[in-house]
Amino acid sequence: MTTPATFNGAPSLLEVDRLTVRVGAEGPAVVEDLSFSLAAGEILALVGESGSGKTMAARAVLDLLPSPLVISAGRIGFDGVDLARLDPQALRRIRGARIGMVFQEPMVSLNPSMTIGRQMAEGLRLHKRLPASEIRARCLAMLERIRIADPERCLAAYPHEFSGGMRQRIMLASVMLLKPALLIADEPTTALDTLAQREVLQLMTELTRENGTAVLMISHDLGMVAHYAQRAVVMRQGRAVEIGDTQRVLLAPQDAYTRRLIDALPRRGAARAPAPSDQAPLLALQDVVVDYAGRRRLFSQGAGTRAVSGVSLTISVGETLALVGASGSGKTTLGRAIAGLVRPSGGEIRFRGRPIGSSAGRDGRAQRLNIQMIFQDPFSSLDPRMRVADIIEEPLRLLPDLSRRERKARAIEMLTDVGLEPQHAGRFPHQLSGGQRQRVAIARAIVRRPAFVVADEPVSALDMTVQKQILALFRRLQERYGFACLFVSHDLGAVEQVADRVAVMEGGRIVETGTRDEVFDRPQHSYTRALLDAAMLLDRSFGDADIRAGEERNLG
Amino acid sequence: MLRFVLQRLAMAIPTLLIVAVTVFVLMRLVPGDPASLMLGDLASAGQVEALRKQMGLDQPIPVQFAMWFGNVLSGDFGRSINTGQDVLPLIFDRFSVSATIVLLAVGIAALIGVPIGMIAAWRQKGALDLGIITGATLLLSIPSFWLGLMLLLFFGLQLGWLPVVGYVSFGQDFWAALLYIAMPVATLVLVETGVITRMARASTIEVMQLEYITHARAKGLSEPAVLWRHAFKNAFAPTWTIIGLILGNLLGSIAVIETVFTIPGLGRLLVDSIYARDYPVVQGCLLFIAGIYIVVNLIVDMLYPLFDPRVTI
């Protein structure tokens, strides 16, 4: 592969040439023969799915590979030196000062036992000879720049006092404080909800533009990349399969794999026929309120929080209602209340006309069995010590008139229904991929043929192509078995693909409901518009004719 | 803070009550009678009966318990059947000996074990790490009494450097006390260092995989700075809980070491009193040990926010 021309003819800042990263000196290659270059001020994206080697390629630049990974060949030219051959001490002078890096997980990317102030100042103290008062002044100025309320207090606070989006902004600010020439951003917004994601990306482009910083962005989200990066490198199994201008890559992909990635981007399917309105709803919520109790003290109780305040909804037989909203909007709590996992403190949930939760005993249990749940994280929602067949079979044990053999047979049948092979039955969850695990979770939820399934962000932990497959599978199973579904998600792309109707939730209340097309095409509430604006849906951005226009658009 | 302490102390009341009842009843289920043990084999049944009456042992167990516990509540733990000493001053006296040894030993073990464990984690899977794990596991698996005996044989008898029997308090003669206490403390240090090293290693490995460690490296910090500033506090929090448990545990189970080195500590007092069916002393000791457990763990929990600001009390 030839080294592609640099951006706008500017001299390249980072020049990666035939980089190979291996597991141990002789082991299998994680990154192989990767070449790309990045000009000053340019934004380049490394795009690929999990396991494509994009993160390791980026980490190799600063020699931050986790052991036993090592750079086994290639050159990483930066500012006239080869980073791959630099001694550790010289490299440490470049880390932070010339090349900054921001990380993915807002929950663990800041040290929980150190104040924000100390963590922000650390880089400046290390690389610049400045008096303490000057360092403090610069930190405060930066916090003001990123619009943190009360910067003084922020310096003395600990990371856990901030939301995920705030933490990512703070981390970005602390890295940009040193005005590095290059910023490596490792999926900095993947763990955030749509609105926060937009805010952080906006801030990142602003700060890097102000300082002339180039960005090496790592992402699995082509939709997002289309909005922000000038050029993209599409990676698969450690190799670059396509390099070029983002627009060109998206509009005229050369490689089959790139085409598959683009096909996986969320697109709206045809709407299904609406449920007949004369039918009684399967599930009806009336003024449902859920409170979380405050901290219990010896003789009193702290003030609680109201997660859901007065929600009324109906869901018909076989219908999919998507519940969308930012983190903290109460959508997950509402889903859990329907599944009977949290007890509402007010209002009523009726399932087939009968109230849920009030009836303990046999009747209540039968109702609960008819409502099943699929969780977000396929890594922790399956018991690691149970085999796949046992996991799927377990709900059937509650049917006393089924023999062991029949149960087994149904579990295997279910397994093929969700697109797995019979030989997966004997495996443990850790032997499966994320997508396969989520298939098992779906099989477990519907093996008893429930009338209603609560799916809490069922695809947000998965790669794009896998998301697409799982959503299609879900739709297929729904047509076959006719269960209704509450699809809880912050990802409007996924919602667009599966929902019949959409309910938008903000601050514990439903602010808008409507059919999918109504809500997506003619949003009424300002919050819905803000969510849609922030969502990086491909169709939408191309409609605007200007891919980078998204950057200038302000939040509704 | 004050509220937390009061709440925890209030929660300790039922615990202590259950300990008191259990200890009291169990002691009386043990065959053997303090009166006949005191009078010896030659005493007549009548003499024994008279003494039992005098000691209140002829009363039904609930009545005995009520009398004893009522006194305990007013601070009177009774007198030793054997020696006639007041139980509480006796316990305090012996406890100061045990506490000196245990605190010293656990303190030293933590000072050695935590840094070594962290270094092992930092060099995970390297030769140094392997050596440290092997050493720690070896120390862990040696019974403390055997280790104590070997030290006695070698340093006490073979080399004659250290005294083999007895105890001198630090108040009496500082240097002599150091000599007497050296071997028991060393025995405990060797055993507990193994535990603390392994714990520190495990929690450091967990912390070192987190993104903020990579973030710290990406800032350009040197490895010692990464370890000390970013890994230490976060890795130490779980180890701190273990250290608290070890402290409480040792204070209760130091009898073995005290027996090996003939040290007049709380553990020895307890064991001797059990043999002599010295009910008031045994009851007092066990209640006291339960109380120490509770207090040690309370202190550990109170200091926890120092290492983890997410924990508020």
Descriptive overview:
The complex is a heterodimer of chains A (556) and B (313). Chain A is α/β, with parallel strands linked by helices. Helix content of chain A is 36%, strand content 23%. In chain A, β17, α16 (464-481) and β18 (484-489) form a beta-alpha-beta unit. The longest helix of chain A has 18 residues, at 194-211. Chain A is globular and about 75 Å long. Mean pLDDT of chain A is 85; it is low at 1-7 and 540-556. In chain B, α7 (144-158) crosses α8 (174-208) and α12 (266-275) runs antiparallel to α13. With 313 residues, chain B is mostly helical. Chain B contains 13 helices and no strands. At the A-B interface, α2 and α3 of A face α1, α9 and α10 of B.
Would you tell me the structural class of the helices and strands of chain B? mainly alpha
CATH architecture descriptor name of the largest domain in chain B: Orthogonal Bundle
Give me the CATH superfamily of the largest domain in chain B: MetI-like
Largest sheet of chain A: 6 strands, mixed
Notable features of this structure?
heterodimer; A: 556 residues; alpha/beta; 6-stranded mixed β-sheet; 20 strands; globular; disordered C terminus; B: 313 residues; mainly alpha; MetI-like fold; 2 domains; 13 helices; 78% helix
Q: What's the layout of helices and strands?
A:
The complex is a heterodimer of chains A (556) and B (313).
Chain A: E1 12-23, E2 29-39, E3 43-47, H1 54-61, E4 69-78, E5 81-82, H2 88-94, E6 99-102, H3 116-127, H4 132-145, H5 151-156, H6 164-176, E7 182-186, H7 194-211, E8 214-219, H8 222-228, E9 231-236, E10 239-245, H9 246-251, H10 256-263, E11 283-292, E12 305-315, E13 320-324, H11 331-338, E14 346-351, E15 354-355, H12 361-369, E16 371-374, H13 388-393, H14 404-417, H15 434-446, E17 452-456, H16 464-481, E18 484-489, H17 492-498, E19 501-506, E20 509-515, H18 516-521, H19 526-534, H20 538-543, H21 549-552
Parallel strand pairs in A: 3-8, 3-9, 6-7, 7-8, 13-18, 13-19, 16-17, 17-18
Antiparallel strand pairs in A: 1-2, 1-4, 4-5, 9-10, 11-12, 11-14, 14-15, 19-20
Chain B: H1 2-29, H2 34-39, H3 45-55, H4 61-73, H5 87-122, H6 127-141, H7 144-158, H8 174-208, H9 211-218, H10 223-253, H11 255-260, H12 266-275, H13 279-307
